[in-house]
Amino acid sequence: MRALVMVMLLLSISVSQGYAAGAYRVGDQGAEIAELQGRLVTLGYDLIADGAFGPAMADAIKEFQKSQGMKVDGMIGPATYTALLGREMPEINRGMNYIARRIITNAMDYLGVPYVFGGTSPYGFDCSGYVQYVFANAGISLPRTADVQYEVGLPISTTELVAGDLVFFSTYTYGASHVGIYLGDNNFIHASSSRGISIDSLGSSYWSSHYIGARRIL
Questions:
Q1: pTM
Q2: 127 is known as an active-site residue
Q3: What tens digit of pLDDT does each residue of 9-21 get?
Q4: Which of 32, 190, 198, 207 is catalytic?
Q5: How confident is the model at residue 94, as a pLDDT?
Q6: Fold match between 2-93 and 96-216?
Q7: Which of 21, 48, 78, 119 is most buried per CB count within 10 Å?
């Protein structure tokens, strides 16, 4: 199941820059996304209208596109937008959303890379080394360790989480000792000590019991 989610995420973000510029996709966020999610919910899709375009929304869009005989790509271009909301799609203002998408796209590039304690490169990452590396590739400098990363940015609640936020956990020691990048739909990507770069749910029994907070860097 997890492998299927990973494949769907990769398919959702591996599109040409030109096409993506005119479509909403994984990593986008805002009121427009929340409205689209609300419409999908009324159509019977199992979503939360949190304003963050995550993996579950991409899956729902694919199912909707398939039901309408449209091109199935998991993104919301003009045709899908109009089919959902009955009006013309407005021009997309990328702004900070572009940076969030860039971070998520870059984060996904390293799925399966092994965990290495102290690792800071694609040859092997630890949790904070991975986060620091991904954000650096988007031009954003972060401290090296999870506990110090926890001290930067804006503290936010779980109800405010959007794609690109950092989520923190207390695992092997007191305080912020593990960090991941929120993807939306209650999922986050991180360097797992047992599975390397992988995707997990904040709602799982282990991660929910060790969760201590989130920070917004973007």
A1: 0.62
A2: yes
A3: 433 433 333 334 4
A4: 190
A5: 54
A6: no
A7: 119
Phi, psi of 14 (to 5 degrees): -90, 70
Is the pLDDT score of 69 beyond 60? yes
For the segment 175-193, the average pLDDT, to the nearest whole number, is 95
Span 96-216 CATH architecture: Alpha-Beta Complex (3.90)
Which residue in the list 25, 39, 102, 178 is annotated as catalytic? 178
Answer yes or no: 210 catalytic.
Answer: no
**Which candidate in 56, 127, 179, 217 is catalytic?**
127
What is the rounded CA–CA span in Å between residue 64 and residue 45? 9
> In the CATH scheme, what is the code of domain 2-93?
1.10.101.10
- The structural domains of the chain, with segments of one domain joined by +, span 2-93, 96-216
Higher pLDDT, 132 or 32: 132
